[in-house]
Amino acid sequence: MPTHAEKRAVPYTPKQMFDLVADVERYPQFLPWCIACRIVRRPSPNVFVADMIIGFKMFRERFSSEVALNNADRIDVVYDRGPFRYLTNHWRFETDQRGLCVIDFYIDFEFRSRTLQALIGRLFNEAVQRMVNAFARRAAQLHGSQQARAPGGGRPESVASGDPPGQ
Q: What is the CATH number of the domain that holds 149?
């Protein structure tokens, strides 16, 4: 089903980006379609379970995921319950030879509902780009422009599958 993999260089440190992505309770402040997000339990210091409510037009869905914070350079998300058949997501953060943080982002999911799947399938690539861009804008709000922009303006090198927007 819809899958998106992307690497993007941004002018921030891996720690800054890791901390931004790990701070799920702030997602409603900047992430498109995220209405609410809260940590419901912490089985260990580096693992938590979060409930998120996403909404788009007349659709509103709640889901729960286990989030593992690994060595301040990787975040793995394991789907727990909600509207998906499955959801796999990870973030990796590395420093490249220019001193920029390279974000390696991957998501793959399928909704149980054929209606939701059809809706997101048409908008998937655009939706993922908006979400990734929201994290980059949030980093700029929190940290300003710390270094020269990445060549190409920090544009992504991405591989995505799914229907193009609007088709």
A: 3.30.530
